[in-house]
């Protein structure tokens, strides 16, 4: 599990048909934060990768071994927020988030290749799996050769290509002595700055001190940035005093018990389940 580091210094009766529910869930995502850009819509995975990329170099830190699993956690949360998957209902036998299985709620296409591929995997499984197991399967971290088919391949490159198509990244070839590598430098710094500012403000000027009152996508992104070990990138540009406040509040938020917080806010169970999975790993 990643750690927060300090800066070193001296359901109803009016239920809609599934298709309408899916469309409504997708619309809700667009309206959830009125301050977000109306021109460019990013998935949680795209936002996490953007936060992790070095602007000029166009690649993530070679020392970051957390972002791959963090991106898979982002896929599960994105699907849940879009109304495609959910955790199985709470029972006396299965109370803990990590004991509850991920259930397919709708297999309606999302329009995102990675999300739709994951949906097909979840639909194809003979028995439902937990959040933690799905993160491992999608990452390819399984000893069962019969389940390697569920691994999502080339995730970072596919997400980067999406960002290139959206005009946020560009594509270059760089030589690293013994090999050439495709890199994706940031070409639209405004979008990344908007994203960083949004997260900084959520911990400073717009701090509500209650995750139930937070915008779900902002809460999800903070959890995923932490799980992917890129949260430090978000606050690095802050003055020292604001940096300390933001990091301390982030730590307090991420140290909350997911089992206690999950029942409080509607629609946030998957977010807390993903956090619980990373806290355990």
From TrEMBL:
Composition-biased stretches (Basic residues): 1-10
Region: Disordered, residue numbers: 1-32
BP GO annotations: Golgi organization; Golgi to plasma membrane protein transport; Golgi vesicle budding; retrograde vesicle-mediated transport, Golgi to endoplasmic reticulum
One GO CC annotation: Golgi membrane
Basic and acidic residues bias: start-end ranges: 11-28
Membrane topology designation: Peripheral membrane protein
Recorded family membership: Belongs to the GOLPH3/VPS74 family.
PANTHER family: GOLGI PHOSPHOPROTEIN 3-LIKE, TRANS-GOLGI PROTEIN GMX33
Protein's recorded name: Golgi phosphoprotein 3-like
UniProt source species: Apteryx mantelli (North Island brown kiwi)
């Amino acid at each position: 599990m990643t750690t927060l580091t300090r800066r070193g210094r001296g359901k109803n009766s009016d239920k809609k048909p599934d298709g309408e529910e899916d469309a409504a869930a997708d619309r809700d995502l667009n309206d959830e934060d009125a301050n977000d850009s109306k021109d460019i819509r990013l998935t949680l995975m795209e936002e996490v990768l953007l936060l992790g990329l070095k602007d000029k170099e166009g690649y993530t830190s070679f020392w970051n071994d957390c972002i791959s699993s963090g991106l898979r956690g982002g896929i599960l949360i994105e699907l849940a927020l879009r109304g495609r998957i959910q955790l199985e209902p709470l029972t006396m036998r299965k109370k803990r988030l990590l004991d509850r299985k991920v259930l397919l709620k709708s297999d309606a296409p999302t329009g995102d290749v990675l999300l739709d591929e994951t949906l097909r995997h979840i639909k194809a499984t003979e028995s439902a799996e937990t959040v933690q197991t799905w993160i491992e399967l999608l990452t390819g971290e399984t000893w069962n050769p019969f389940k390697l088919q569920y691994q999502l391949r080339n995730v970072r490159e596919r997400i980067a290509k999406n960002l290139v198509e959206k005009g946020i990244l560009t594509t270059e070839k760089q030589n690293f002595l013994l090999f050439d590598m495709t890199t994706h430098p940031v070409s639209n710094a405004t979008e990344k700055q908007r994203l960083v500012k949004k997260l900084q403000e959520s911990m400073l000027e717009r701090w509500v001190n209650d995750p139930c009152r937070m915008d779900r996508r902002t809460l999800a992104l903070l959890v995923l940035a932490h799980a992917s070990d890129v949260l430090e990138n978000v606050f690095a540009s802050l003055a020292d005093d604001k940096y300390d406040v933001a990091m301390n509040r982030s730590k307090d938020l991420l140290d909350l018990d997911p089992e206690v917080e999950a029942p409080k806010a509607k629609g946030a169970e998957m977010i807390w389940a993903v956090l619980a999975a990373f806290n355990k790993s």
